[in-house]
Amino acid sequence: MLGPSEVEFNRNLKSVPQVPLFRQVSKDVSYQNQQLGEEIFTERKGVNLLMIGTGEYTTGFVHGSASDSDKKAGVVALTMFDLRHRFKINRLGLCGVNGQKFPEIRSHMRRMIEEVYEGLSTEVETYPSDYEVDPRAYIDALNSFHPGDAVTIFTPDNTHFEIAMEAVKRGLHVLVTKPVVQTLEQHLELLEEANKRNVLVAVEVHKRWDPMYSDARDRIVGLGPFSYMYSYMSQPKHQLTTFSNWVGKSSDISYYLNSHHIDFHEWAMGCSSRPISVMANSSIGIAKSINGIECEDTITLMVQWENFDSLSSCGTAVYTSSWIAPKSDVHSQQRFFYMGQKGEVNIDQAHRGYSMADDTSGYYSINPLFMKYVPTNGKFSGQNGYGYRSFEAFVDAVAAINNGESQLSKFDHALATLSTTIRTTAILEAGRKSLDSKKSVCIVYDDPTDRCRPTSLKIVD
Length: 461
Fold this sequence. Notes:
Layout: H1 4-14, H2 31-35, E1 47-52, H3 56-59, E2 61-62, E3 65-66, H4 76-85, E4 89-95, H5 102-114, E5 125-127, H6 137-143, E6 150-153, H7 160-169, E7 173-177, H8 184-197, E8 201-204, H9 211-220, E9 226-236, H10 239-242, H11 253-269, E10 273-284, H12 286-291, E11 296-307, E12 314-325, E13 333-340, E14 343-348, E15 355-358, E16 362-365, H13 386-402, H14 422-437, E17 441-444, E18 456-459
Parallel strand pairs: 1-4, 1-6, 4-5, 6-7, 7-8, 9-12
Antiparallel strand pairs: 2-3, 9-13, 10-11, 10-17, 11-12, 13-14, 15-16, 17-18
Helix pairs in contact: 7-8, 9-11, 11-14
């Protein structure tokens, strides 16, 4: 086992060499042009970024081996390694809890990334050291970065608020996986601190970059006041094992999956409508038989929305999520139906009319629009995937802010910022309160300056 000084020396060896800060591919240049060598360079500095969380979505490494989902190579780290290759990222760090996992994680990333994509390095600073287990290693990691640097947080839901707050207090820009936090009170507190520190805090909800979802959102704007929406999203039973450290202990499937379509709905509504009451129900049985703890298998939220139109009309939304689906042709079943007073939209996001079969995996549906893992001529070519673009948009925003090219308020419509996602947090918390109390929960609006900003929740007796 290495001693502290040897580990620190090895960490320094792993540090990414400083690339010339003036050399960066313009965000206006397409990847195809980059392949042809038609690169345009600007004076913009690259962003220093710390990835907190070392699980499936970041590295693709779960319980000692590659994930058995469609994310074996991860999403966050792979994207950041490529953004560094494109000179949009400069220094890159990775922080977890158990440093003893890092030798295996590095080996996994070399196998799944370096040996697959030509020229893509997985060198990264890691926290804590390889001989430590430290639940608060993120403090040391954050302290090694500086105001204006960036952080991604992909950790269990109940840790988001504390980690994000520590990052914000240090003047770091933050991108948090959904749900950004678990309570309305935490959301408003984090927003207040972010405004005080003048830093960007956004939620990583990649469906906003899905071309079908973004087109649907734009079309919904022209369909009149909201009338009805139904959404469904599921993942297979083995996710209960993947997330066994927190399933039923610190979060639920509604926070984890319903958050996708609730955010989409809030984004589509703008301030033309607001949720006013939530009633939740659930199915139970399978999760307990697998993990031995009380946990909902499936959660449905029924939400009443109030429209701001001449008729003072209202609409109803039904959001359902589950993690007991059978293994099928896709990892996640996900679809929605939306009806406005002038038209309707229907999307099956899991099936894009593209499928294949092979001797190893059998029949399956493919969605390279999310992440394109298959290389092109030996190189990573997933830059146009909406899973990738969600991170790139955040990195570009941080660079623009740091270089004085834009202001924080300019990103309220381009990104899922804290100030534009409050209703999603209110719905998710109200759903949890409704499940626990078996009663309806009202969403209260007491801010006279903003009719779409929830201020509190009230259980209806």
